[in-house]
Amino acid sequence: MKNTYKHIFLLFVLSISQIIVAQNKKKTLNKEQAEKESEFYKIVNVPIPDDIVLEVGGLALTDDNKLGVATRRGEIWLIDKPTSPKPTYKLFAQGMHETLGLAYKDNSFFASQRGELTQYIDKDNDGEADVLKTIYSWPLSGNYHEYSYGPKIDKDGNMYVHMNCTYAGKAYSKAKWRAWLLKITPEGKMTPIATGFRGPVGFTIAPNGDFFYSENQGDWIGSGWITHVEKGDFVGNPAGLIWTDEPNSPLKLKPETIKSDHLSMYEYAKEVKELKTPAVWLPHTILGISTSDILYDTTGGKFGPFEGQQLVGDQGQSKIVRVFSEKVNGVYQGAAFGFVEGFSSGILRMVWAKDNSMFVGMTSRGWGATGRKSYGLQRLVWTGKTPFEIKTMKALDDGFELEFTKPVNKKMAKDIVNYKMATFTYKYHEEYGSPIVDKKNAMVHKAEVSKDGLTVKLTVHGMRLGYIHQLAIPNLTSTNGELLLHNTGYYTLNQVPGGELKSHQMTMLMEGTKKLEQPKRITKKPTSWKKIDQKITLGTVPGLKFNLEKIEIKRNQKIQLTLTNNDDMLHNVVIMKPGVDTPDTVGTMALQLGLDGPEMNYVPDSDLVLFHSGIVGPESKESIYFTAPSTPGQYWIVCTFPGHSFTMRTKLIVK
Amino acid sequence: MKNKLLIYLFLSTIFATTHCFAQEEKLKKEELKHSTIELTNLKAFKKSSKNWMITKNVSINRKENKLILSKKGKGVLTNLKRSKKNQNLISKQEHGNIELEFDVMLSKGVQSGIYLQGRYKVLLNDSWSNTKNSIQNIGNIEQQKMITTQNMAKAPGLWQHVKIVFQAPKFDTDGNKIRNAHFEEIVVNNNLVLQNIAILKPSLGAIFTKEVAMGPLVIQATNKAIAFKNIRYKLNTFSSLQPENILSEVKKSPKEIENTASLLELKTIRKKNVKTISPLTDLKKNAKNLIVYSGTFNIPENAEYLFTMFVSGGGFMSIGNQEIFNFNMSSSGHENTIPSPQKTTIHLKQGKTPFVIAYNKNSTRNRAFELYAEGEHLQRYSLATYKTSKKEKEINDMHFIVLKHKPDRTVVQRSFLMHKDYKRTHCISVGHPQNTNYSYDLAVGSLLQIWNGGFVNATHMWYGRGAGQLAFPEGAIIPFHGDVDFAFLKNENSIWPTTIPEGIELEQKGYEFDEFKNPTFLREINGDKIANKFTPSTSERKLTREITTDSKNGVWHKITEADAIEILPDGTYLILNQNIFIDFSGNKNIQPIIRSKGKGKELIIKIPSGKQKVNYDIIW
Q: Any signal peptide, and if so, which residues (chain B) (predicted)?
């Protein structure tokens, strides 16, 4: 009898492990949100054998329904029965130098390596590549940051590869065509298409043939974005402009022309005709921190109600956001919303499975992510239930038209009090990232609901061309009482229909220009201090960690703490009260600062926070001064930049 | 007249002295003086059998597998003369602790050895054909435990380099042994094969059975040929600089350090008298302070001393009033590159001398501090004691993601590679199951290096962000020239291009695998097709380079370049300084050309037009 129970228990555990929702609830940043989302979109693990380090760089489905996976370790694996509980793995090719993309066409694979675009051909059909044909090779300077992504293949068979910039304190282009988008024919003829790229991890060819790419925050890049790319475009970071002298360059813009004048990109684009501004901005830390793949929902309705929209992955926050876009006066723009979070590692690639679930390939080695595993492969499966969401958000010349996935509660939808709107933008400058600038409130003046309850037409006062429009409807419910699964969207307004903005401008209800006060941040040695008892330097190491596990100070001592940021991302230091959960609690509060985050240095107003620094950029440092608490104990020093608080923490032992 | 002569003499003396001085200066920075066993005659050895003799050079007849005299003269010790009885060769000089280096050439199948103190044998066997790690490999010790070594042998007929660091047994005043004889390290052809092996008793065949403090070097008698040259050694009479009165002081970190005085003037936070120099233990991981050790050395004798410092962060050292290390000491310093050892030599007088050693961990990278001292009669040893956690050590060594061979197929790995101090970005390393490996530059089209041993260390590619993206061979490499392997020359006297010439269209075509996953590299130069494949052999360590061309007007190929190239009696090319054989005998219609390149030589061939096949063996 005992044995039977044992067997049953084992079977139970095994079967659970095959189909269990893979969200590790303890580690998800926003547990409640992830749980809500899982009712509609479930995350399922794809089992990976223990001895395979599947750091996903590329995903492609073959004609016979195998999943090809290219990895950062230069391998291509073929997974047979990838949607089943027992997939089998076979090594198709190995030995390449960092394959960060994968495409399948005409019975062979194509994957970009660091230094070339390669075709992988299995001549004798034994399941292993025998011919690795160099389609096109490009120079490298030897810098670690020169990642090469792709290819994506258009309908004519042309292949597109994206060249990450060189990074040495800031973005450079130290080998020809770094920071460019290249088009390569199957015969190996190369045409440079556009430049201005910094971290173009995601690139997609829309069903209509248009190109879109995703960008990562950095120097000149205020926040991540999705931009529509055309030949001859300059999309933002000037590093690649040093090659416009090449005879085949489609633009002649010189790097010296670009000045760091603190204008917004939208304004600057009026002066520099080659500058292409984003179609859709993804506000930093709210809708991602390191944007990756873009995947169109081409399932024809089999993945829920967002057919035709873009799903965009994020490496740092281990989540997917949703982008609705439209073309107004020939220019792409649209709105971004949250979608699903809680993936096991940093998302890099997404492709459709034959059964209309989505494969999500992940790796976080070197950078850390909210999903704490080093690598992973999961599937996102629609449960068949439709969530209550803002399906589309379209621009009008005096407002927005919203479509919902389910009929809204008409009374609530008509009440303008339920709508909160604000407009803001980012600086376009050579510094790393940008805070939110020029934020002003906007006002929904009127809300008209359609008869079927699925559409709401908002008349808005205070719309501004070139600005990002935040719309929040936190209390709105559907007719059956459901709250919106994601109640905030961000619309990038490049154009309005008709060409002329007719929205009334706001003269009152302006956002006060009160200066933010943060008394817990002291960056100058207090004049009352005769001496400093202890000077501490805290540095960063790659993988989102501080370089010290613990620091000891004596109570009531006068302390100078210097944060030296040697990383290529933003960080801060926040000294917190003791408590096992304190770092997580404050970390969550920091994330929820939303748009106010950057201005507040991602430090929430909380009693748990004792002292803190500002945001410190790469290769910079900041010193703060404080008196150590009088009560001994184990306090915390944590970086509260969204997503960092899990691993970037040092114990502050007060003796 | 007289004046002119005097002036001439004066000037020539100056010239001669400065020239010598310059040579010595160069030596000063790299290493310490060694003693040599002059091989101008047999006076360094006791009288022995008649087969031992001195000559200028020895080489091999590979067809008959015999070593033969190739040049009369001095410099090489060998046993080629016929003799009725072969006896051991015993040195007159006796030694205790010794660091010994020499080049040895073995004939096929020879089994010989060298006995340290006439008692402890290091094998000098021709183990070239051994396919497994075995106890019979060259460089292993004849001992009681079954310790195998990696087979780092080179082919018979090639000079092999052996380095042995040996410590004699220690005895107390009553003559009781208190420490066993010890092999600190044995290096064969630049590969470390053994480390830290204690020997309990003399080896089989030792000419003395009693263990003592001093004994002679003994070369074992053998009826097969063996040859030695460049025998040099250091008698390590001393084992320590005996630091005493060591004061450790944690000080506030400075902006810049100019000299010892300014270092000592910094404000001291806390001080302590210590017995050892252990900055990694004494200084907390707190990066804001630095630690200074001051004390006295007991310099054992007037001599040259070599100090080596390896630091992640800032390092400082002075002895007496001479500053010998001072780098990265300012508090803002941080490096992005892998820290490399700093070396310097200094002459010190016997007696007590003050020293100052400082470590400033101002880098946010891993902490590392290593400091070694060596003297003309002082064995290299670590001045600093340090304990790092296993994880820290792994990371400092950067050697835990290591790619291995597969038993039944070739493995490849593309990466960046260092070649002669330059980083090359489009490289591939190939490892055969026979432990023969090579790297090839796909962009330039050039064989970069070959090696025997494991495949590659990929830690610098796949740990963290992999900042280097470099793979490192798991064995001592034999580098090749690294220029383009194929070129169009106007004639056989045209200079070989070192970069890709103008007007030449180079196209990489990739590679194709055979059934064993051995790649053939394909490229086109101005439309001419060139294919390269490197095939191993199961019978001996070699790579056969198979070149296939299809050219309009023929194409030139540079096989290798060297300090000197000799043609052996059977037609094999002996490439000196690379120390390899090139066997070109399989190609009847092509005659390789040896031509000068600066002070050295190049070995080139012209491949005719049309479809051609050229194969040659690289043997080492």
A: 1-22
Sign of CA dihedral B480, B481, B486, B490: negative
Residue from B360, B426, B517 whose CB has the most chain A CBs within 10 Å, to mutate: B426
Write the residue in A97, A188, A542 that is nearest to B465 by C-beta. Answer: A542
Q: Which of A94, A144, A537 sits opposite B469 (nearest CB)?
A: A144
Q: Which tens digits make up the pLDDT trace of A512-540?
A: 555 678 899 999 999 999 999 999 999 99
Confirm or reject contact between B92 and chain A (CB < 8 A). no
Residue A102 reports pLDDT greater than 90: yes
CATH number for the domain whose boundaries are A39-382: 2.120.10.30
- Nearest Cα residue to B249 out of B111, B129, B360, B113: B360
Q: In the structure encoding, which two tokens stand for residue A531, read together? A: 């001496």
Angle ∠(A68,A71,A73) on CA atoms, nearest 5: 145
- What would the pLDDT profile of B466-502 be if each residue is shown by its tens digit? 988 999 999 999 999 999 999 999 999 999 998 778 8
Which residues of chain A lie closer than 8 angstroms to B252, CB-CB?
Answer: 535
**Domain segments of chain A: what residues?**
39-382, 390-492, 534-654
CB pairs under 8 A between A and B: 102
CB pair distance less than 8 Å for B288 and A536 = yes
For chain B, 620 residues long, the average pLDDT of each consecutive 10-residue run is 46 39 37 89 93 92 82 92 85 95 94 95 93 87 82 94 96 92 94 93 88 94 92 93 93 71 82 91 70 95 93 87 83 51 91 94 71 93 84 82 96 97 96 96 96 96 92 96 95 90 90 97 96 94 97 96 93 93 93 95 96 97
Q: What is the DSSP secondary-structure string of A286-325?
A: TS-SSEEEEEE--STTBTBS-TT-EEEEETTTTEEEEEEE
**The tokens of B196 are what?**
């830290």
Q: Are residues B88 and B226 in the same domain?
A: yes
- The verdict on a CB contact (< 8 Å) between A551 and B428 is no
| Same-fold call for A39-382 versus A390-492 | no
Minimal-distance CA residue of chain B relative to A131:
B512
Residue among B250, B266, B283, B288 with most chain A CBs within 10 A, to mutate? B288
Is B465 part of the contact surface with chain A (CB cutoff 8 Å)?
yes
User: Considering the domain boundaries, does residue B307 fall inside one?
Assistant: yes
Instruction: Among A98, A535, A548, select the one facing B285 at the smallest CB separation.
Output: A548
In sequence order, which residues have a C-beta less than 8 Å from that of residue B38 and are 6 or more positions away? B44
What string of H, E and C letters represents the secondary structure of B296-358? Answer: EEEECCCEEEEEEEEEECEEEEEECCEEEEEECCCCCCCCCCCCCCEEEEEEECCEEEEEEEE
Of A128, A134, A537, Cβ closest to residue B509: A134
**In the prediction, which pLDDT does B262 show?**
80
> CATH number, domain at B40?
2.60.120.560
**Within a domain: B547:** yes
- How far is B155 from A420, CA to CA, in rounded Å? 82
Query: How distant is the Cα of A550 from the closest Cα of chain B, in angstroms?
Result: 9
- The CATH fold of domain A390-492: Immunoglobulin-like (2.60.40)
Looking at 2.60.120.10, 3.40.50.720, 2.60.40.420, 2.10.25.10, the CATH number of the domain A534-654 comes to: 2.60.40.420
